[in-house]
């Protein structure tokens, strides 16, 4: 996670409080991440900072990160198939 945001967590909480604006702020900061590593970091960071009213939003944000990470992995797997699939298209036909 962005260390500036983690180091300033107390200031962010004080400024945004624990209300709905805070939930939206955090959701918008967390959900753009797209790797399993970032999902783990988010979960670890909030493990002792989560409040009961924030649990659901945090869980949904982590799930969104994990979904995007899986989607990216699938795209990477498909990209690795492209050279093999196009190899046959670039060969010159055998004359008989």
From TrEMBL:
Q: What is its EC number?
A: 3.4.11.2
InterPro entries according to UniProt: ERAP1-like_C_dom (IPR024571)
Domain (ERAP1-like C-terminal) ranges: 6-66
Q: Name one Pfam family in it.
A: ERAP1_C
Single Gene Ontology MF annotation = alanyl aminopeptidase activity
The protein's UniProt keywords, in alphabetical order, are: Aminopeptidase, Hydrolase, Protease
Q: What class of enzyme is it?
A: hydrolase
Hydrolase in keyword set: yes
What's the protein name?
A: Membrane alanyl aminopeptidase
Classification of source organism? Eukaryota, Viridiplantae, Streptophyta, Embryophyta, Tracheophyta
């Amino acid at each position: 996670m962005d260390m500036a945001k983690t180091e300033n967590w107390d200031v962010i909480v004080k400024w945004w409080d624990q209300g709905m604006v805070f939930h939206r702020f955090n959701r918008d900061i967390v959900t753009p991440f797209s790797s399993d590593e970032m999902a783990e970091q988010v979960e670890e960071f909030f493990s002792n900072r989560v409040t009961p009213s924030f649990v659901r939003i945090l869980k949904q944000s982590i799930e969104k990160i994990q979904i995007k990470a899986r989607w990216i992995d699938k795209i990477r797997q498909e990209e690795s198939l492209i050279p093999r699939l196009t190899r046959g298209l670039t060969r010159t036909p055998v004359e008989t």
